[in-house]
Design a protein that fits this description.
about 90 residues, alpha+beta, 3-stranded antiparallel beta sheet, 6 strands
Amino acid sequence: MARKKRYLTATMADGYVKTIGPTAAPFTHFWRIVAVLENGKTEVFWGHSKSAKEATGKKAATAEAARKRGWTSFAFEIVELREEDSA
């Protein structure tokens, strides 16, 4: 039997809301990186993971990416996804 499709919502501390779906994937957490480049511009990277541990593991990789890409700074955030009835 196919898994039920659902909508998942992440609300970041700054009020940004991201909705994922419809999906049957077992995602539980959303992560976001806001990187400040050498020229002052910003880039945003995001993704979702199947556990808090998996999402937290991205933080170590982010520090390495910052060194390789020459980011002047970055913010890494993780929030738990909430299941919604519809988009």
